[in-house]
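Tutorial handout. Part one gives the primary structure; part two gives the three-dimensional structure as tokens.
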Amino acid sequence: MRVFRLLVIALLCLNGSLNAVAQTTTIVAVIGTGDMGDSLGPQLARNGYQVIYGSRDPGRESIKQLLAATPGATATSQRRAAQQGDIVLLAVPWPAMETVAQSLGQLQGKILIDASIPYKMAKDGYLESSVSSSSSELIQAWNNDSHVIKVGFPGSFLIDNPQLMGATPSALIAGDHRTSKERVAKLIDAIGLTPLDAGPLRNARHIESMGLLYMVPLLQGRQQGWEFFVHEHPHWPCTLAGGHLYGANAASPDKADLPGNGKAPVHCTKTR
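Part two.
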């Protein structure tokens, strides 16, 4: 009888633990199921996030295949997915983004991750930005009660397999809301990338400029492309000791506490 009671208690505790996990699972609405969305969605689901795909046609065959590759995921309209998500990942290309980002309903308090690059073809055949500020700043203006975070993701093949090129890819993030930036940094870290804080949301335009540069080898017809691997290093205090810029924004309200912070500083060997 005592064994039975212990078994019942154990089952109740297990059920409570499972319920606690379920209650704390972050729901990510992936809006857009193209090259970026169909890589990020499965990775997020495999790493503890509940994924809801938002699609213009959630019943089409490609979405069914994507659901089969994404553990526990569901699919619905873009607006319904955004309403259900704690985090809304906007993986829609421009110019469609301009319509989609203004059609998702009330998103008060939600985190919006902008993964888009607004571009147009210039007269010389290269790409240039199609907006005067940045995609992220426009999305923030259209959804002023949300917290927009810009993320410069690497190529989708590195999201599928982060160690494919022998080093961990980085993802620059920019945003004005510190705690939202920290939640996004944890998400990026969970899927095998290194999040790096690129400052306030207005710096999204610089991340987008890197996206335009990313396309140069393709436009030139080269057989080899490139990837951006921005690596952390602990040498700033040694390099800029005494410099008037060092630590100028140490107390900035947007400065995020990133995964892996607290690494021991290097021992400076320079004497000057």
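Part three, for discussion. Strands lie at 27-31, 50-54, 74-76, 87-90, 111-114, 119-121, 127-129, 147-152, 170-175, 194-197. The domain at 27-238 is CATH 3.40.50.720 (Rossmann fold).
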